[in-house]
Amino acid sequence: MTALLGLLATLLPAFTAPGAAAAEGNTATVYYYTPTRNWTAYNLHWAPSGGGWTTVPGTRMTAACTDWVKLTVDLGTATTWQATFNNGNGTWDNNNGANYQLGTGAVTVKDGVIAHSDPCGAAQPPAGNAATVWYSTATVGWPTVNLHWAPAGGSWTTVPGIGMEPACTGWVKKTVDLGTATTWQATFNNGNGTWDNNNGANYQLGTGNSKVKDRVVTANATDPCAAAEPDTTAPTVPTGLNASVSDTSVVLSWNASTDDEGVTGYQVTRTGGGGTSVADTSSTVLSVTGLEAHTAYCWTVKALDAAGNLSTASAQKCATTGDTPPPATPGTPLGGDPRKDPIYFVLTARFNDGDSSNNRGGSQHVKSGNAANGDPMFRGDFKGLVQKLDYIKGLGFSAVWITPVVLNRSDYDYHGYHGYDFYKVDPRLESAGASYQDLINAAHAKGMKIYQDVVYNHSSRWGAKGLFTPKVYGVRDSQWSWYYDQPNSSFEYDGLTVEPVSGKSYYNGDLWSTAEPSGNTCLNWGKPTGGKSPEGYTIYNCQWPSPTSKMFPSTYYHQCWLGNWEGEDSRSCWLHDDLADFNTESTAVQNYLIGAYDKYIDMGVDGFRVDTAVHIPRTTWNRRFLPAIQDRVTSRFGAQKAKDFLVFGEVGAFVNDKWNRGSVNHSAQFFTWKERKEYDADDAKAALEMYDYEQQQGTANQPTSNNAFLVGNSYHTPDRSRFSGMHIIDMRMHMNFGYASNAFNNGKDSDDSVNDATYNVVYVDSHDYGPNKSKERYTGGTDAWAENMSLMWTFRGIPTLYYGSEIEFQAGKEIDCGPTCPLATTGRAYYGDKLAGEVTAGDFSKVASASGTVATTLQQPLVKHLQRLNQIRRAIPALQMGQYSTEGVSGDMAFKRRYTDTSRGVDSYALVSVGNGATFTGVLNGTYKEAVTGQTVTVTNGTLNAPASGKGNLRVYVLDLGGSNAAPGKIGMDGPYLK
């Protein structure tokens, strides 16, 4: 007997079940599925919560309907109970030693899966108008289906509704009595909280026979289970089986089979390597990885149709694997001044899908509407990004900013900001031959940098593996068994692998406990709060991670909710229930995060974009995290690579003034500076002292810098002695990019308070906001986009573009609505459809060849504009690294720029006018060559007049200093804007 808990229960006082007798307290009827057991007898051995077990072997169950037995038990005052099943002769099903945790009402147990319905519910002869509905289970794959319905003008059934009856393979049915109604509405569910309610619209049905399949209603339907000519014809035999070997991976391909009713898939059998395995696929291509080295394998393929007919096997194809491939070699940062490299920003999971096997929809796949679009949230991956690096290079970008790569865990975590294991790359992004290291190496091979998005402020709500992960209260009762997966101690969550019992990659069986965990500090563990969920389910204390429930130890996490975005609590409290706020002033947390990000530095990334930087005290950045980054890069790659390692922080200041609501502590430029005085050695105390000191000092006493400004016409060596080590995203320009002129004037107004604004990362919109804190992707129009780009690519700072903006992708669409709408309708839509085909870059801004859809994408006007802007910027050092001045310059968006490096013999001087006319006075005399038109202008009196060039156009007059500093003249070919 394997039911260990059942055996232990025999030592307790016996509790005799009343069988099917009329219940005096709470009752439950359990239905048990028999075909997979095929026992001659079925016994239920059970105990109510707080009560004793029945005497072994329990109570005999009775026949219910085909394939099912049942028993009704009296639970007394209990609302939950546990059970095992046996055949009376020592063979047990006790759920792998965990017993089944059940609730009240009708409960089904089928092959280890608990649901809530009556699978045998026989319909009463209708007294009024009758309606019969057939529901297709082929798509949903539910073992149990409930019908939840209401006649027109009448009430809904009690959730989850009534169990539908098996009709035939792939169909269930139910006949209902409508009374006097002639129409009715319905939804369907699996008894465990998963619903098909037609995307919130419900199904509208009438009298007679209806059929619902794949959300399509057929009225006056014929019985889909009516006897039909059986399909006994097997598909044709697959031909042309081929095996292509690469190291220990093999790609199989074959010709498609045909069938009179249609081929539904293929069955691939492999022999060799010490065993036989069978794989199912719907494609005519199958990738097999992880095989043994230098081993012979053979494959055959059979075709399958919907009736289950299998073709005979194809001719066998054999192949021998090669060497086990070595792990990707760690990379080395490319180095070089980061201001030379314009940045292309991608949400990796939404950019391009190179490997569909790692696609995952998660728990919100259906609710979000993504399922209906065939658009899983985790879709793009490193392999897809590697495949399209030439597209990005062809646009002219030499740096790619990617979203966080660490293993995430939440209900909607494709974006990467819900870190769970900071030491592990999320497997949903990786593929054989396309690891994160492979991506870094592939980018470097093309002369392109990788900037990794990193999060120091928070983890997922489920904590950080290796530091602390919370355990919440949960119970698999009649209300919650759909949500809490059965614990499986041998399974480790990685976001990709499907847990075998729950069938989920988003398995949560390790996150909850009915029993109070050792050392629990959450008050009133498991006691009802008195509240109800939207479905009417009981809510319990400690059922959800929360900072104020004492579920998280203060050593690792802060324990309050943020109240004031410009207050001190914004650095010490949670922003959102999905973002558990690290106690970053704790040494344990600091060591955990520094160790994690050292791993990625060692892989050779070229810089970090820092998420939510404002929510960590500047003292902690300056004392701990920023020095740790510099120290690691220096120790691994040398001081020069450390100097070139770009760290740029997101400081969310969403107002149009120089200082964010007058709070220096919450202004972007504040984070570019070292501290001005010594604070307490304790980081938590130091954070408070610094906050108070800087608030008292106010905006007038903040440090200033001329690092971004020319002195007259001369470039001067920047003073970076007070630089913190963190550059910033230019939030003020970002917020004002409704109009390029606003962005220009607001941006330069803040530059004296930034340590060196020539490093500011500048963009119009992103994965979070558009200008003016708009929740939509920029929708100013193509001309305005061209003007914004012309400014960004010539003014100080590092121009950055959010993926797809080169074709105004999803313009005007809401950027992010979470799981309340499909991703396809948002600014985070999948971009790969625009990239289908092949593209090869000859050099930056140059496409050697392109075919398919991507060729059309590359012909769009803003693409052409970008390519030429990148050519111009790359050819003129002053536009990349130069200081600037507007002294003696008239015109709206006009400025002069210069960069000088005497050690390398570089001197570059340029006068820029964007769109409108401008007059430059007091400039250097000499011959200027204009980069857009090739015009030559000689200045003898210190004055140069630039005529208006038109919206989106610009003029760049470069002083010809001869030799290696000769002006390049016209750069590139005329396009839709630059001409």
Task: Walk me through what this model shows.
There is one protein chain. With 979 residues, the chain is of the alpha+beta class. The strands form 14 sheets. An eight-stranded parallel beta sheet has the order 41-40-39-32-29-28-43-42. A six-stranded antiparallel beta sheet has the order 46-48-49-54-51-52. Mean pLDDT is 92; it is low at 1-23. Helix content is 15%, strand content 27%. A hairpin with a 2-residue loop joins strand 4 (62-65) and strand 5 (68-76).
Largest sheet properties: 8 strands, parallel
Q: What sort of overall outline do the alpha carbons produce when their principal axes are compared?
A: globular
- Sequence stretches where pLDDT stays below 50 over 5 or more residues: 1-23
What spatial order of strands do you see in the largest sheet? 41-40-39-32-29-28-43-42
Number of helices: 16
The overall strand count is 54
Q: Could you tell me how far the N terminus lies from the C terminus, measured between alpha carbons in angstroms?
A: 85 Å
Helix content: 10-25%
Overall average residue pLDDT: 92
Beta content? 25-35%
Alpha-carbon Rg, integer: 33 Å
Give the structural class.
alpha+beta
